[in-house]
Design goal:
Elements lengths: L7 E5 L4 H4 L6 E8 L2 E7 L6 H9 L4 E6 L3 E4 L17 H29 L22 E2 L8 E5 L2 E9 L2 E6 L4 E4 L1 H9 L6 H16 L1
Parallel strand pairs: 1-4
Antiparallel strand pairs: 1-2, 2-3, 4-5, 6-7, 7-8, 8-9, 9-10
C-alpha cells in the first residue's frame, strides 16, 4: 500500500536559468512540513519535461504548483492552495501565448541591459572627490544603466550612487535620489550632481548621452 500524499511539490520551467546559475530545463522538488516550517524531502529526477514533473509530483503530494515563464503559477495537484486562487493545470492556449510574450520581453530586457553595461564600461572614468584614494583600481563598474521600465523610469547607478531618471518634457528631466528627494533640470546636470563631478566630465557626459537616448526610446 502506497504512503498517503503529503506536502507540496514545486515545479518550474525556469526560462531564465543563467540568472540562477543552473542548467536550463524543468526543475522540481518536494517539501513537507515540520513544526510549521517547510522541510526539503526530495529533488525531482533530471531530464523531466513539465508533464513528467507533474506526474512525479502527483505521486507524492496533494499540492502540486507549477510555475511557467518565471511568474505564472498553476495548481496541478488533487488539492488547491487555501491562501490563493490559482488557475488549474493545464494552462489554456491563451495563457501559454501570454507567457511566451512575457518571457520574450524579459529576455530582450536582459539583452538590452547587458548591451548597456558593455557601453558604460567603455566610458572614460575619473574618480569623484569622495571616492579618491584608490586611483589605480577604479573602473566604470561603479556606474550602470537599466533599460527604462514601462512607465519610462530609468534605474541608474552613477559612481556608486543610485538614482532614478525620467523625462518631463523634451530637454528637461527629473531625478529621484536614494533619500527620496526629487530634482529637475538638464540630464547632464542631474547626473553630475549625483556623481559629484562637473557637468563637462567625460564620464558624466557619456552617461547622460546614453540615458538621453534610452529615455527617448522608452
Amino acid at each position: 500500500m502506497s504512503a498517503p500524499l503529503h506536502g507540496t511539490v514545486f515545479i518550474s520551467d525556469d526560462p531564465f536559468p543563467l540568472r540562477r546559475g543552473r542548467p536550463p530545463g524543468v526543475h522540481c522538488h518536494w517539501e513537507g512540513e515540520r513544526d510549521g516550517r517547510p522541510v526539503f524531502l526530495e529533488d525531482g529526477p533530471a531530464g523531466l519535461n513539465v508533464e513528467g514533473a507533474v506526474a512525479w509530483g502527483r505521486e507524492r503530494a496533494p499540492l502540486v504548483l507549477v510555475r511557467l515563464g518565471g511568474s505564472r503559477y498553476f495548481s496541478a495537484g488533487t488539492e488547491d492552495p487555501s491562501d490563493e486562487a490559482l488557475p488549474r493545470w493545464p494552462p489554456s492556449a491563451e495563457a501559454l501565448a501570454e507567457i511566451a510574450v512575457e518571457v520574450r520581453a524579459v529576455l530582450a530586457r536582459d539583452a538590452r541591459r547587458a548591451a548597456l553595461a558593455a557601453e558604460v564600461a567603455r566610458l572614460p572614468f575619473r574618480l569623484p572627490p569622495r571616492l579618491r584614494g584608490g586611483e589605480g583600481g577604479w573602473t566604470a563598474h561603479g556606474s550602470s544603466l537599466a533599460p527604462p521600465d514601462a512607465g519610462g523610469v530609468m534605474e541608474v547607478m552613477v559612481c556608486e550612487q543610485p538614482i532614478q531618471l525620467w523625462a518631463l518634457v523634451p530637454g528637461r528631466f527629473a531625478c529621484r535620489s536614494a533619500d527620496g528627494k526629487v530634482r529637475e533640470g538638464a540630464l547632464v546636470d542631474l547626473i553630475a550632481a549625483a556623481a559629484e563631478l562637473p557637468a563637462d566630465d567625460e564620464h558624466v557626459a557619456g552617461l547622460a548621452a546614453i540615458a538621453a537616448r534610452e529615455l527617448a526610446s522608452a
